[in-house]
Write a structure and sequence with these properties.
Layout lengths: L1 H11 L18 E5 L11 E6 L12 H4 L4 E4 L10 E3 L9 H7 L7 E6 L12 H14 L5 E4 L11 H8 L21 H5 L2 E7 L11 H9 L2 E5 L4 H4 L6 E2 L6 H9 L3 H15 L9 H15 L2
Keywords: Glycosyltransferase, Transferase
InterPro entries: Glyco_tran_10_C, Glyco_trans_10, GT10-like_C_sf
GO molecular function: fucosyltransferase activity
Length: 309
Amino acid sequence: MSSFHQLKQGLASLGFDLSTCDINTEENSRISLHFDVNSPVELKSPINYLILQESEVINPFGWSRDLHRKFDRVFTWNDELVDNVLYFKLNFSHKFPDKEKWERNIVSWEEKKLCTLISGNKMVKHKYELYSERVKAINWFQANTKICEFDFYGMGWDLPSFNNRYINHIIKRIPFYKVFVSKHERYRGSVENKNSVLRKYKFAICFENAKEIPGYITEKIFDCFFAGCVPIYYGAPNISSHIPKSCYVDFRDFSGYEELYQFIVNMPKETYLSYITSIEEYIYSARSLPFNSECFRDTIVGHIQSDFE
């Protein structure tokens, strides 16, 4: 919520009160911000912005070009759409930790376990989805690594997952269903705080919900960075255009999970620590600023200011 808190403060400096539509109705607002529209919308304010965060894999309706043309500006992380006419660049944004606090939070190489994965158990039908690849990763690591080398966490892994969200909703409401579901032996339950878990591992399998979508870089890789954990990344094809390759292990560089496993399990301490150093240098450099919550605020506030000049 840091990004939206910052945005509210930034707009207040221009004399705008940012609130939800139950407080500030669209009809009585000079400008409306719409997030991830998933159904037909009637625009009622003089100026309307659309902010796209969910990918087309999760919210296909929101990626209709006809829908986009109804808005005055569309803010998106999608590098292929950005033209600075209708579409403007806006990344997923994050509150970056204080550097001294980040350094104190780092667990030593000797104390860390090898690898983890944190994700909910979900499925979706789409050619770019990576939910099924996470399942492949879990199954491979469970079958081929020592019990001390891999754990995974997240909601719903003690239940089956279907492509139909209505079936999933029904299944989750049947309390006795878990009795009939075989549990994953490396499943450690859900987590209250990702950082407190990730910091205990050298590597984390960090797959986006979708692949092959330029600029689709979510909180997942930054969760790893902020915990001092090296991500094994798969998702945006142009990730290295935004984040130095020295900060993560690129899943695409390997022929399969066996080769990946051999790479991480045999990595020398010095090589591993070079990744951690690169992560620290990146997150506290100017190159990371486009993913900072202040950039989120300044981008939107700047466009609103120019529209009202």
